[in-house]
Amino acid sequence: MKSSSVLWYEQPAENWDQALPVGNGRLGGMVFGRPSGELIKLNEDSIWSGKFRKRNNPKAYDNLEKMRQLIREAKTAEAEALCFDSFMGVNEQQRHYQLLGDFHIWQNNVDGYTDYRRELSLEDGVSRTFYTAGGVNFIREIFVSAPDECMVICIKADKKGAVSLTAVIDGRDDSYDKNEYYDNKTVIFTVSDGIPYAAAVSCSAEGGKAYTDCNRIKIENADTAVITIACETSYRTGNYENAAVTKAKNAHRLSYEKLLERHIRDYKSLYDRAGISLDDNSEGNSSLPADKRLQLVKEGKKDNKLIEMYFNFSRYLLIAGSRAGTLPLNLQGIWNKDMWPPWGGKYTININTEMNYWGAEISNLSECHLPLFDHIERMRENGRVTAREMYRCKGTVCHHNTDIWGDTAPQDKWLPATIWPMGMAWLCLHIFEHYKFTQDKAFLAEKYDTIKEAAEFFEDFLIEDESGGLITSPSVSPENTYVTKLGINGTLCQGASMDSQILYELFSAVIEASEILGIDGEYADFIRSLRSRLPEPKTGQYGQIMEWAEDYKEAEPGHRHISQLFALYPADIISVHKTPELAAAAKATIDHRLSHGGGHTGWSRAWIINMWARLHDGVKVSENISAILSHSTNPNMFDMHPPFQIDGNFGAGAGIAEALLQSHSGIIELLPALPPEWKSGSVKSLCARGGFDISFEWESGTVKWSRILSKSGNICKLYSKTPVLITNNGENIEVSRTGSSYTFKTKIGEEYFINY
After folding, report:
1. CA separation (Å) from 260 to 138, 251, 547?
2. Which of 661, 645, 660 lies closest to 600, judged by CA?
């Protein structure tokens, strides 16, 4: 197996930060790999703390104009006091994600084990633990099957009758109702607190015996033991107990080999689509365990294959954590060890949830993006209510957090974040991004009204500034604090730069969708007139992109959010090709943040990787990938905020792809930000906007050849500093060249080869 396709270790996990994740999008587990006392932390994506709460503050609208006037007059203390009284949610907390439970396996006669190895294979989505005890070789395989909707655990020995164990499910601080015998092969575990659910554990064995003893699974003298775990919740079905038991027991109607084969075929149908390969510069260290490789990177060693593995791991996590019909990835994906996880394990939508999906399209996992769109629809009606009750606006709105129920009211009582009405607007940009990559007009037609409704809110919400521009108020620049000329710290503001940038992209999406679908032209013209009045990015006192409408000083110059550079990434308002002056200001912004300690959280460093990629700076991309590996990556390769927060895995994975392929601003560019260490390598089927599937190979930093598969028959515009020859079916095709841009027509399903 390739060194970039398997995370392996020489010892069991001592804690969560060393355990290995498995999942099928809905059901997940963290595997510790302990021979004699295995622990698997279990999760199911719809196990949350309770039902929907009505939380909109009824006092908001009556105080809206007063709030705006206080902000306009820079009466910071008064504005903050009014905000706490009239704009916070009437119950400050949305619902939070929870643990399913702990699954324990106590295997007999393996305490003095040797020849230990545990691993997670990214090629087939299986966690394996190998060990020898008493002269017997054991292998434990664990995966979560999407086709069969259950976790499968298989323990095999190379000596007949050597597998004996006891297993039990528990946890959740004893807040369960049932933990008991269901039948002679199955136990059931139920919880009615929060969202009610049931987990069923069933067993079988080849040779020996498999049976239940009270609430325990027992295996005696077996050659092979197979345990399945299924979970269902009241969120998805009324008879969740019966559904869980049925799925756990049904899996045993198939042989273990068939269960494994079905899982691998399903998993590889997604994972094998795309990939990258980087030359090995590790001086032999790529053969070491993952934790030792990470340690060497911290000591300054190079390891391209570890970076390749990080990219592969980000794709693995997306497949394991976000599949059609599941809930979207939360702050921890689907993996969580706590009853009350950090930040509630919710959907934080002032960047974190969006970052989880930055790599979905480019890395050829478009279907894994779908749960996010489903959740936007769950939020939509609640957002209409929040828009009406709090602001007397039409359309739909959400603030900086949402939960399983699509709650849209302000979350927390924390001024730097809570009153930020841009969450729905940003999420809806993912809808149009999905269209840009897939060119799926039926999808766009289905979702057009959702994008439009998000825009409609701002028709009513925007106010005029002193120059007649349209700005948001009240709002914040997410989680950051400014310092007024009087030395007063403030967070509430009008016209934060990020707000205007998000709205420019949202309004543009409405306009473009209207044109593509040939509908709603009058409304598109109206939105175009609003877009023309939005403030454009401006430069400030040290040559940076300004974060607020005024060029304030920052209370925390090294802040983790760099919200004013939304225009650079994920948007393409600022680019090296289109706006070189603003690109230079963006560079100054990042340099300023980093010089004051920025990038200290994993997700922030991941965002910075993408920004440097958009600025075509491969050296900085390399430095920041090294930084996220050195300072923000756990031994199990999970991202650290700290604590664990999964968005950095997805953001950095997207950044690695962005360094190799970019397709914003209507141009496809290969190797736009190649790190110097990535001297040679190849790309397999990454995706580009416009409906293109792209593979290529490079050597000594120069592209040797590329292949572009047209999935939608669009015109292709390729940027190349060196002359190219483009062929289709061995024949040269007609190409229009302007400077370094090559434009040619394509046909659906045709492949175009470019020789450099």
Report:
1. 18, 11, 52
2. 645
In angstroms, the CA 134 to CA 484 distance is 72
Q: How far is CA 469 from the centre of its chain?
A: 34
What is d(CA 611, CA 565) in angstroms, rounded to the nearest whole number? 8
Q: How far is 510 from 528, CA to CA, in rounded Å?
A: 9
The H or E element that residue 437 is part of is: helix 423-438
| Domain identity same for 79 and 209 | no
| CATH number of the domain bearing residue 725 | 2.60.40.1180
Q: Read off the pLDDT band of 173 (50, 70, 90).
A: confident
pLDDT tens, residue by residue, 369-383: 999 999 999 999 999
**Global pTM?**
0.98
Asked if residue 525 has pLDDT above 90, the reply is: yes
d(CA 657, CA 662): 8
**In a shared domain, residues 70 and 156:** no
Prior bond to 410 cis, omega within 30? no
Give the residue numbers spanning the domain of 242.
6-48+99-271
- Does residue 131 share a domain with residue 66? no
Annotate 344-378 with b (16+ C-beta within 10 A) or e (fewer). Answer: bbbbbbbbbbbbbbbbbbbbbbbbbbbbbbebbeb
Whether residue 28 is found in the same domain as residue 145: yes
Beta bridge partners of 38: 105
Q: Taking the CB of residue 13, how many other CB atoms lie within 10 A of it?
A: 19
